[in-house]
Amino acid sequence: xxxxxxxxxxxxxxxxxxxxxxxxxxxxxxxxxxxxxxxxxxxxxxxxxxxxxxxxxxxxxxxxxxxxxxxxxxxxxxxxxxxxxxxxxxxxxxxxxxxxxxxxxxxxxxxxxxxxxxxxxxxxxxxxxxxxxxxxxxxxxxxxxxxxxxxxxxxxxxxxxxxxxxxxxxxxxxxxxxxxxxxxxxxxxxxxxxxxxxxxxxxxxxxxxxxxxxxxxxxxxxxxxxxxxxxxxxxxxxxxxxxxxxxxxxxxxxxxxxxxxxxxxxxxxxxxxxxxxxxxxxxxxxxxxxxxxxxxxxxxxxxxxxxxxxxxxxxxxxxxxxxxxxxxxxxxxxxxxxxxxxxxxxxxxxxxxxxxxxxxxxxxxxxxxxxxxxxxxxxxxxxxxxxxxxxxxxxxxxxxxxxxxxxxxxxxxxxxxxxxxxxxxxxxxxxxxxxxxxxxxxxxxxxxxxxxxxxxxxxxxxxxxxxxxxxxxxxxxxxx
Length: 480
Prior knowledge:
The chain has about 475 residues and is an alpha/beta fold. The protein folds into two domains: about 25-155, Rossmann fold (3-Layer(aba) Sandwich), CATH 3.40.50; about 190-405 and about 425-465, Dihydrodipicolinate Reductase, domain 2. It is built from 14 helices and 15 strands. It has helices at about 35-50, 65-80, 85-95, 105-115, 135-145, 160-175, 190-200, 205, 230-235, 240-255, 265-280, 410-420, 430-445, 460-465, and strands at about 25-30, 55-60, 95-100, 125, 150-155, 180-185, 215-225, 290-295, 310-315, 325-335, 340-345, 365-370, 375-385, 390-400, 450. The strands form two sheets. The protein has a nine-stranded mixed β-sheet. A six-stranded parallel β-sheet has the order 3-2-1-4-5-6, with helices on both faces. Strand 1 (about 25-30), helix 1 and strand 2 (about 55-60) form a beta-alpha-beta unit. It is globular and about 80 Å long. The protein starts with about 25 loop residues before the first strand and ends in a 16-residue tail after the last helix. Its EC number is 1.1.1.49. It catalyses: D-glucose 6-phosphate + NADP(+) = 6-phospho-D-glucono-1,5-lactone + NADPH + H(+).
């Protein structure tokens, strides 16, 4: 699982980049915004340092400044993220940068952009903008005749419910082919999320356990030990269900449950994701718990009397032969005891056997994939100690490379988009299936229960798993 620096690349050798879809120009709308400041410029600089950036970068924003000022801003921003800036590397990176400013709703901006891009180029437009501007920007790119066979990448959220997602898809598809549209979910660029596919399909020891015959329940947890802080206005309009469950956790569920693709190309992988999401029964509000941490209402930007959830736990069912009758429990929340994201498969219990010295039933075997922090895999077995009591035997493996730096999610996603590898981007059918699954919880949201910061959410979440294995605390020990 761990790879040395010489074996790693932003696009792994098992992926299938399409050189005919590679881009020679990256146009970043909103380059001076929050995402650009925290992630995009840093990721592009890191790709430059690795020798993997091979295109011009045109920044677009409303701020009136020059290209020289953008270069100075980029250096300051990259350094502020904690990245060590090397003069020679940054000089190469700076030579790629150009800045165009204007109003994204003004046709004059697109005429200027057309002149800057020039003829005969294949740009990738990256829209780091509010979702309400996705369609207006794409429609103006088409009107200015600078779309052609270019690709367009958009950030989440993609819609705020099933109807709005369909409306947005319809507007974008009126101008773009689906193969030109890249829906970005940074979670899909994380190394252990990608590793999950290889672990399942390359290891018969695991593949043989990966179904209803061996698995009694699956728990997927994304816990955060911090609150909303300065994101109150944004978060209050979204909540945990839209912010995390509809995209991140359902994509992880798809990777855990899908059948192996027949080929390694983007559509083969995404066909299997859409197929398995289509087999997930729509969520039942009776099997969902919402919570809000004490003090959330005092966060600046949060509406008075807000019922937005900062914690969500729900039970889902996959209606196919492999997973029928196996419950999938998903939970996510703010202000929980720790920060951790993991997938935990709880295997069926061994029977009570007279030949064993301890008559009580042993703890279930478990397979744990830790996504954050310190990504790794744990296989939990049981043995017997000197006092004849059952004790866990944990087999741990780290995904950390032995040498070199792992690729950060936005590094990987930007490089994949630029080189024509679309496997890590979500397709229209999967987005709509994800909204279909959570729509009943939006139409009929359960009551919001209060919980104390530092707890594991409201007590009602414990009752959600009644009759099944109780919630397990995430694995937090060392992976090595």
